[in-house]
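Note to self: keep these together.
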Amino acid sequence: MRITDIKPLPVWVGNRNQLVVKVETDEGIYGLGEAGLSGRELAVIGALRHFREFLIGQDPLQIGRIWQELYRSQYFEGGRVLLAAQSAIDIALYDIAGKRAQCTGLPVARWQAAM
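Structure:
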């Protein structure tokens, strides 16, 4: 399974903006994650576009490796904007892992340990 696209989905929730991120795969499984940084959606979208080039073609089940690459590939630490983008991607990858585990019939904890 490979990542095919990263889509930012800004939404209005109640009295503030939220940013949901959709990570799509070539197997049709997708994951959703929330950036959690209200009021800076455009900045987070820019960070997601930056990360997108690295993520396309990656195995979405390599969650820890992807997290480390995103976090450590900066010359300077990323701050709130980059970490919000990274967090949304991380949540979406776990969503994909959960959906994939559901297809195998194993609990997520046992399935991920078997990876």
